[in-house]
Amino acid sequence: MLQIILNATKQTVYMVFFSTLFSVVLGFIPAIILTLTAPDGLRPNKAVYETLSLIVNIFRSFPFIILLVLIIPFTRMIVGKSIGTTAAIVPLTVSAIPYIARVFETSLRETDPGVIEAARSFGASDWQILFRVYIKESIPRMLNGVILLIISLVGYSAMAGTVGGGGVGDIAIRYGYQGYHSDYLFICSVILIILVQAIQMIGNYIYKKIS
Amino acid sequence: MIELKNVKKDFGDLEVLKGISIDIKDHEIYGIIGQSGAGKSTLLRCINGLETYNGGEILVDGVKVSTDDKEGLRHLQKHIGMIFQNFNLLSRLNVYDNIALPLRFWGIDPKSPEAKQKIDSLIELVGLTEKKKARPRELSGGQQQRVAIARALVLDPQILLCDEATSALDPEITKGILALLQDINRKMGITIVVVTHQMEVVKQICERVAFLKDGKVLAEGKPEELFVKPIKEIKSFLQEESGLLPSEGVNIQLFFTDESSDEPIITLMARELGTNFSICWAKLEDFRSNVFGSLIINVREEDKERVCSYLDGKKVSWEVL
Q: What's the whole-model pTM score?
């Protein structure tokens, strides 16, 4: 039992870590485009903003379990198979990208317009404003978004069991719930609680450090 | 030298600036005063290209301010520092790094010895040597504005624009900031343009002032000329009440806007004309360390002619109310 649960914990951490990493990197790009082209952005462009915004919303409206199944062909294309822990990273990432894009966009756009105006008054170029003001000032807010994302990914990763992803949530469902082993259910729950609590605490600590 | 020639601006149907012409000389402290919504801040932002304008022309040292030429505008902005009502410091940078920020925009390494020396001397100038490593939120409003002033000076500008820079500060702190601005103007010869709705600011530091209302310049001149004997619109802006004046006799208001304020006119007049009168209202104000003011006296009907001609002889301007 210990071996099973330890293994599952490793799988959860593995899935959550990589899907967070990929979605943060990939979600950053649309977030920047949304920020720049927003009505109050540095390069307002209604067509680009509205289109991208719609795409983000469409992807966000899929229930995760549906998305998971829908993109199986895409998953196979990327990792070569549609089953397994690594394969589960793909749907997790795909569902997290629009979330991160929106969270980062909101964080970036919360930057005090006065500070941006001050930077402009000193002759800063748009790129300098983007990196030295928007992103620099938003990092703590973006970090908060990432913490929220990691915690929801821990939850979503339980559903990844559907495609053989494994993980703590999967064990809890299969051994604990379906197999009537309440001890598994209990231990898995405790592990998830510890995991979420640890993520939140580390997040809060870093937030305090950098803001 | 900043020349504004018939500058116009509208936001769609709303005309904000209706043809403004002002010349601001080098090394002077020039005030733009008016109620909120008069177009002051918009006008100020046109000078450094933060806002576009639709008509007329703005020349800074002979160069036209144009937002079409982005590179040219950046170089112009390098010579024009700006401070704001809400200080607009970067919350995640400490005092030193905030001041260094404009240097980074211009590719100057803030860690180079020259940059370090410059930033340190500016921190000293604004009196924040102890707070070099502090974050903005650890500072009071007045201290934050001092950081903003140092930041605005780091690129050696010839012009400093102040947008309601003291409006968020209490009166005592405001005085300190104004003294600092005056000091900078004297020591470095920087032209300062101040936009404000606060009379104290204009009175304390401005050499010349323009009174803006509804996007037009209603009056321009020395603050004492505009405010001691104000025109109707300025009077309503100042919200001055002379109180209840006697209904008998004649009320005469005297204005002291030049050297005459040194002479004891009132007592001299009483003695020389051998008459009595009562003082009903008086106000003295400090303009850049000179005292100017006005006074309302009540005289008997039969003394009116003599009093008026006496005042004319002493070159005191007056007005029968």
A: 0.87
